[in-house]
User: Fold these one by one.
Assistant:
Number 1:
Amino acid sequence: MTREEWLRISAALSLGGLLPNNLLAELATSSELHRSDFGKDFVWGTATAAYQIEGAWNLDGKSESIWDHFTHHRKAKIKTRENGDVACDFYHRYESDIELMRQMNIPAFRFSLAWTRILPDGTGKVNQKGIDFYHRVIDKCLKENVAPWITCYHWDLPQILEDKGGWANRDSIRWFEEYVDVIAKAYGDKVKNWMVFNEPMAFVPLGYLIGVHAPGHINFSKFYKAVHNVVMCHGAGGRIIRNNVKGANIGTTFSCSHVDAKNDKPANTRAAARADAFINRLFLDPVMGLGYPKADLPACKHIEKHMQPGDEQLMAFDFDFVGLQNYSRMVVKKLALIPIIHVVNVPPKKLGHDITDMGWEVYPEGIYHLLKKYNSYKNIRKIIVTENGAAFPDEVVNGEVNDVKRLQFIKDYLAQVLRAKREGVKVDGYFIWSFMDNFEWAEGYRPRFGIVHTDFATQKRTIKASGKWFSEFLKNQ
Ligand code: FCB
């Protein structure tokens, strides 16, 4: 890829960068929400990821992951030049953090496992200390009555496997199967809720196409290969969990953004369909048994080149639920010179809505449209919102964090989830990203997504106003 091409595609796909420039949101304009409105089986929780919270990057036999490597050796790729070496120190503080979840009435905790703790060589020898750590975390959850929801992979591939080509190497399917087999066997008796991947549409293009996330490649060929291998791993991982965990509730998660065309010019309508196929359907469609969305995204032919006989069937898996992860929306217009998608985003700040600290547009109706869209897939049995939330700059004043914008964001998005549910959409859960402020990848520690504030110098946790609201909401069944 030329530098020119890279600049164009990263500008088109990049979501971050803009600072907030809006006024404080009005508090609680929408009518009050009640937990009971969502039904008694609705799952409520908060979400995290290993690299973003654990720290202890080289303790107890853990090896280097691509994120350790990226933050240590390609520092300029992280806006603040920070890393996850310590993060929220969850590795040492998991007990008090899980106790805090219980105190806040949070019924479920979504977290990921670090492959590098379990299999430091990527495959082969199992590291008992790594296995033991997650047993302690899970046991603590069960003791506090907080249901553990495990994500097998949230972006932290062992560096040793990246050195062999990472997700662009077809052997990654075999490596991943081995890893999932080990964890499903280790924890399957205690944990019933499993997610295979976190957001393939983030880690594959950001890591292999535009190079802003680990492992930092800017390479079309690696990207196309990695897409197909990761698609294959959805089916592979799902089947291994099914075979090993009795009574498992198996899902996987996809990032998605509602896409609008800038106007109704036919070229822009087609551009929106292409962007939608790329952003929302590239992984979801094949995993749902529909193949790659090539009618709307001709570039799929470069991916299909890597398919082998029998792959079509193996890509699909009958998931019990699909995790929908949404933050923002995209408004696009045609721009032929952008590779693959031939579209460009209208800058969110031009859309007239509030903007978060990530530069993302606040657009609650987006989640409603996405829920309706997912609901129309006949192979989606159940939808769980496995991530939703917002970064806004927070301030601790007299021991309190009055995060009115985040609170409003959560209420407004939840109101749209309820609207969809009332219209018959089979949505059955909602996890806030995130339990506590943590390491936000290439953005460093600056964007704060937590409903609990983390003071990274002292590791003190402070429940924000949004967290207090959530615990009250959860208390009143
Ligand atoms: C999602 C990621 C999660 C976090 C949030 C803000 O795309 O899954 O780890 O970074 O965005």
Number 2:
Amino acid sequence: MNKLLVLAMASCFVASSLKGQGTYDQLREKMVEEQLESRDIEQESLLEAMRKVPRHLFIPEEYLPWAYTDRALPIADGQTITQPYVVAYMTQVLQVGPEDKVLEIGTGSGYQAAILGELAREVYTIEIVESLGLEARKRLSNMGYENIEVIIGDGYNGLPAQAPFDAIMVTAGAEELPQPLIDQLADGGRMIIPVGPHGGVRQLTLVTRKNGELKSEKLMAVRFVPFIRQ
Ligand code: SAH
């Protein structure tokens, strides 16, 4: 009888602690509600993508408990996976739709590329750190993303062979707007890039081209790892 009681208490404890932590699906739903919908993320297809992509599969094991928290996390090589809200914000600004061809500079873990891959027709993503690029390529392919291509190299020059792009996202902080990327923006295209001095706060900058005319607009102060040149 006593043994049974102890067993029952123990299983109650296990059940409640599991419930407290929640499954990854529940944590992801909570992330979407509390970090995205409660702020200004309202593009339905984007919220769907953020609900679907398993962010915990993109981060190192030791940071798993923080996979769905409101912050950036370290990945390998001193780089970071961007905070979920900033991923969603930058993506929403680009208004990516199912016909779009997208270029990302700074693959990192591949998480942002996966979100873009859920929304766009094709995604090209360039990573300068070879080990990160190879790992992201394998991860995205294992997850079945056939519309995402990971390229290893310096993204400064973009990808002229695939240009023009409907949307370009740079996920490393640049000191100025890279001219080759501007040149590869389609008419009607949108580019989002953090611009500002290294080590300081940068401005998320939206660059658009419409009827041949370029416009640039500062949207929000952010911190990003630096854009590296080879
Ligand atoms: N988008 C990533 C986060 C990227 S962190 C994610 O979802 O996880 C910025 C990344 O940009 C780093 O991996 C860094 O190595 C890469 N990077 C920096 N300079 C670059 C350059 N010139 N070309 C391509 N990638 C670059």
Number 3:
Amino acid sequence: MLQLINVCKSYTTADFTQTALDHVSVAFRDNEFVAVLGPSGSGKTTMLNIIGGLDHYDDGNLLIDGVSTSEYKDRDWDAYRNNRIGFVFQAYNLIPHQTILENVELALTLSGVSRAERRQRAVEALGRVGLAEHVSKKPSQLSGGQMQRVAIARALINDPEILLADEPTGALDSKTSVQIMDLLTEIADDRLVIMVTHNPELAQRYATRIVTLADGVIRDDTRPFDPAAENSPRRTAKQARRTSMSFLTALSLSFKNLLTKKGRTLMTAFAGSIGIIGIAAILSLANGVNSYIANVEEETLSEYPLQIQDQGFDMTSMMGLGSGAEGSSAEKAQDDAPDDDSGKPVHESKMIASTFDSIGSNDLASLKGYFDSGESGVESYVSSIEYGYNVTPQIFSSDTSGTVHQVNPDKSFASIGLGSSTASNGIMSSMMSTNIFYKLPDNMGMVEGQYDVMAGHWPENYDEIVLVLTPGGSVSDFMLYSMGLRDHAELESMVRAFANEEAVNAPSDSLSFSYDDLMSVTFKLVNAADFYQRDNEYGVWKDKSSDDAYMRNLVDNGETLKIAGVVKPKEGAKIASLQTGLYYPSSLVNHLIDQAGNTQIVQDQKANPATNVITGKSFADEESNQKNGNGFDMSSLFTIDGQKLQSA
Ligand code: ADP
Ligand code: MG
């Protein structure tokens, strides 16, 4: 049930305020066909848009099923629009280069319904509006009436409770208009249809109720509805169905949109900020599908683990301000000030400051100690705890006959500003990373259930890697470059051409490989500590990573990593925790840490904790230098003759 109470809306342009709705109060039954009549400019479209949540009222209230929308946030309006409302406009708003089937399907894409079901429902909806034979035509091959039918099919695909139509026949001849009206009448059989029209005859003939507007005021209503008096029974059955639908929509939105994205950490913060997981949990309680949601949550959290980093900041403090949805309290206070726009200063909103203000640091060593002690009791709430040590395995192609090529961390795109080499912050670097090597979780139970092993096996030893294919069983060309199955020089020349803004010659051939081909690839592992060589003359450790001969020797003598298995997401798996790439086991990280601990440079550093063994300077000096500039005082190179400068 929809009810507008004293709704006011005005539009202010440069120097003029136009009242579009002036204290409009009207309620609609769950099932009727309402025509809204009135001269042009009387506020019909404005009222329809406010009912549909496309526009917001200035004053008054809109009740949905008796619940006020005055506290609705953007996401509440989104959910309302997406799940309960269908729109039809005078302009059909179809996408010209897509078939009408695709046009209708598109309305479901965001809702996360599977492709097969999308298609089936689109075909059904088009059948319902009498266009079954035309599904593969483009909009330009249809008449106006047919295009409007497509728009109606699109509006119906979610089976909305309320269909809003703004002059749907405005561009059609009278014969076609009648057909559309017949269709709308049929649709109004089991839902609320509100249609704006300026054709009183059509309104008389088809609608069950006519509301007439003039100058933003309701002048006439042929069949008013007083919800208080009628005391209509609540449609509980339909409501339940509705909630479960929006629950599914909320879920699938959260997964489909977010799972494909790379920067997991940021997306986790983002998902948290828009509360998707929270919404899903609440809706699931309402629907009594706890076991299902528990399962989905477990799988989701394997994708979006709760992360505690040594430094963290609240990304949402930035986003809230950006969207204007939830301003800071200071901002609110200013908004509450009397509305005198003329002399009102423009206030600064503290986006950066409040973001960095929210930075906190965490004592992770103590936290781990606490978890390890077993006193926390956290085990019963988590499926696994993983520790990350910020160790990036230095991995190279084993073929050093040409150049020495490092594949992890990947630097293929460094020249065009992409890649992990520069960013130091954990969040940013995971966003910017072009790496294809990832660490497997410590706890493999959940992951193994999500994949089919196509060849070989999951890593059993630290020097074994597993190749994760796409759900379709393919591997990207970019991975082939890193694996040496495509010539890396080809990629380098493409990147170079791109950086120079020249035409890029992308290879058009498409290769295929047997599992044995893929599993014959090997890599070389080097301990980062070995990049440094002691310089006895100066008593420091020198970074040799750009010394070709040194690196070639190092890589040739490195440990060999082999691909032990190839896996693919199970058919129909809801969640696949691993994106495509090459995964090494967490035992590799432990191996590297153990190994590094025994190297001379680490021993030296440990023996001299106050001195940086790479530069020979004390950390304290370096830090104060850094505070005064970039570690190097430029001004010490110059003297300035003030008098000369002045006379110049
Ligand atoms: P109708 O659909 O009945 O023709 P509308 O609801 O579109 O009327 O418009 C009502 C009044 O509000 C008109 O005077 C119109 O000019 C004004 N109006 C509508 N939308 C806007 C807008 N976005 N900006 C400024 N004025 C608007
Ligand atoms: Mg209008």
